[in-house]
Design goal:
The N terminus and C terminus are likely disordered. This protein has eight helices and nine strands. Helices cover 63% and strands 14% of the residues. The protein is elongated, with a radius of gyration of 69 Å. Strands 6, 7, 8 and 9 form a four-stranded antiparallel β-sheet that branches. It has a three-stranded antiparallel β-sheet with strand order 3-2-5. Helix 6 packs across helix 7. It is of the alpha+beta class. It has four domains: 86 residues; 103 residues, Tetrahydropterin Synthase, Chain A; 93 residues; 41 residues, no CATH class.
C-alpha cells in the first residue's frame, strides 16, 4: 500500500515537472522570437514596442498555461482518487466483495450500485442474476449444444431436444464465487442436465414419446431430480421442456407406416360403424315415421272430435243467442210501447191541465187584464181618425185606456 502511494506521488511530480518544462520552453521561444524581430525591424522604436507587447502577451500566456496545468493536475488527482476508491456493480448483476487483506469473500450479495472499495484492497466479482436458457437442439434452430441421444427402453435411438431455464439462487452468489464456480457453473449445469435427462427419458418406450401427457410427466420428474444436484452449484432450475424428438430415418419410416396402418384401421372401423349406423338410422327413421303417423292420426281424431263438440256448442249457443235476442226484443218492444203509452197519457194530462189552468188564469181578473193587454199590444191600426171635440175617443197611445176600453170598463179620467 505504501509503495502505491509513493508511485502515485512520483507520477504527479513528474507531471508537474513536465508542465514546467513545457511552459519554460514556450516562454523561451517567445523571447527569442521577440529578439529576432527587434534585430530585423526597420525602426528600433517600433521593434521595442513590439518587444514589450510580446513580453506582456508571453506573461499572460504563461499564467494561463500554469493555471491550466494545475487544473489538469487537480482533475487528474480527483479522477485518480475516484477510480481508486470506488467501484461499480452494473445493472442486472449481483456484486460479491472480496477483501484481499482481511476476511476474504463477504457472505453478502450486493445489489447494483457504486460502493467504496479501494482497488488493490477490494476485488469485486459480478454475477449475472438473469435467467439463463440451456438449449439442446440442432444448430440451425439456435441450439447451444447438439440434441441429446437417448436410447429408449425398446432399444431405439432418439435425438431429444431439451430447453432448461435456470438461474443463480438469490442470496447465494457469494457462495458461488467462494466455491470457485463463477465461470464454471454453466458447464456444471449442462453436464448434470444431460446426465439426468438420459436417465429419465431412457425409461420411455418409442411409442410413449408421442404421448404429450407422458412427456410432460417425464419433464416434471426430470425437473424435480435436477433441483437437488443443481443446488450444490447454487443454481435453481425453473422449468424444463422437450422441444423436439427425432428417431432414426428407418424407424421414422416404420413409425409412419405403422401410423398409416393404424389410420387405415381406424378408417375401416369408422366405415363399418357408419354402415351399421346407417342401418340403425334407417330402422329408426321407419319407426319414427310410423310413430309420427300414428300420433298424427290420433291427434287428427282428437281434433275432429273436439271440433264436432265445439261445433255443437257453437250451434247451441247461436240458437240460444237468437232466442235470447228475439225474447229480449219482444220484451223491449212491449216495454217501449207501455212506456210510450204512459208518456202519451201523461202528455195529454199535462196538456189538459195546461188548458184548465189557462182557462182558470184567463177567467180571473188578472187573466182578463193580461188578455186585454196582449190584445192592445197586438192591435194593428193602419189608420186612426181622431176627433178632438169628442173626449170619449180613446187614445191609441195610452195602453191603459185601451185596456179599459177592451174590458168594458169606464174610461180613465185625467185629473
Amino acid at each position: 500500500m505504501r509503495s502505491f502511494f509513493q508511485a502515485l506521488g512520483e507520477l504527479l511530480a513528474s507531471v508537474v515537472r513536465a508542465i514546467q518544462r513545457v511552459s519554460g520552453a514556450i516562454v523561451r521561444g517567445i523571447g527569442s522570437g521577440m529578439r529576432g524581430l527587434a534585430r530585423w525591424s526597420w525602426r528600433g522604436t517600433v521593434a521595442a514596442a513590439r518587444s514589450r507587447t510580446l513580453r506582456a502577451t508571453a506573461s499572460v500566456v504563461l499564467a494561463l498555461v500554469r493555471t491550466a496545468a494545475w487544473t489538469a493536475v487537480f482533475a487528474a488527482l480527483a479522477l485518480g482518487i475516484g477510480w481508486f476508491g470506488f467501484q461499480r456493480v452494473p445493472a442486472g448483476f449481483v456484486g460479491v466483495r472480496q477483501d484481499n487483506f482481511g476476511a476474504g469473500i463477504r457472505p453478502v450479495d450486493y445489489a447494483a450500485g457504486i460502493y467504496f472499495a479501494p482497488r488493490g484492497l477490494v476485488t469485486w466479482h459480478d454475477v449475472e442474476k438473469k435467467t439463463h436458457v440451456l438449449d439442446f437442439a440442432w444448430e440451425s434452430e439456435g441450439g447451444d449444444w447438439p440434441p441429446i441421444e437417448v436410447r429408449t427402453k425398446d432399444g431405439n435411438i432418439c435425438h431429444l431436444g431439451v430447453s432448461l431455464l435456470y438461474r443463480v439462487k438469490p442470496g447465494e452468489a457469494h457462495a458461488l464465487v467462494k466455491d470457485g464456480l463463477r465461470t464454471a457453473y454453466h458447464q456444471r449445469v449442462k453436464g448434470t442436465t444431460e446426465k439426468i435427462v438420459l436417465e429419465e427419458f431412457g425409461k420411455l418406450t418409442s411409442t410413449e414419446y408421442a404421448d404429450t401427457d407422458v412427456r410432460l410427466a417425464r419433464c416434471a420428474a426430470t425437473l424435480a431430480r435436477l433441483k437437488e444436484p443443481l443446488a450444490e452449484y447454487h443454481v435453481e432450475a425453473e422449468s424444463l421442456l422437450v422441444t423436439q424428438f427425432l428417431f432414426a430415418m428407418q424407424y421414422e419410416q416404420k413409425l409412419q407406416e405403422k401410423q398409416l396402418l393404424a389410420q387405415q384401421e381406424l378408417m375401416t372401423a369408422a366405415q363399418r360403424e357408419l354402415e351399421t349406423n346407417r342401418e340403425v338410422i334407417a330402422v329408426e327413421e321407419a319407426r319414427i315415421d310410423a310413430a309420427e303417423k300414428a300420433i298424427r292420426a290420433e291427434r287428427d281424431s282428437v281434433i275432429q272430435t273436439r271440433f264436432a263438440a265445439g261445433r255443437k256448442q257453437i250451434v247451441a249457443l247461436e240458437q240460444e243467442a237468437k232466442e235470447y235476442d228475439r225474447r229480449r226484443k219482444v220484451e223491449g218492444q212491449a216495454e217501449y210501447d207501455r212506456l210510450v203509452a204512459e208518456g202519451d197519457r201523461a202528455l195529454l194530462q199535462a196538456q189538459g191541465l195546461q188548458e184548465i189552468l189557462a182557462n182558470e188564469l184567463y177567467d180571473s181578473d188578472g187573466g182578463r187584464i193580461l188578455l186585454a193587454r196582449k190584445a192592445a199590444e197586438n192591435l194593428n191600426l193602419k189608420v186612426v181618425t181622431l176627433n178632438a171635440n169628442d173626449p170619449r175617443v180613446p187614445n191609441v197611445l195610452d195602453l191603459d185606456q185601451m185596456v179599459r176600453l177592451l174590458l168594458g170598463a169606464a174610461p180613465l179620467t185625467t185629473p
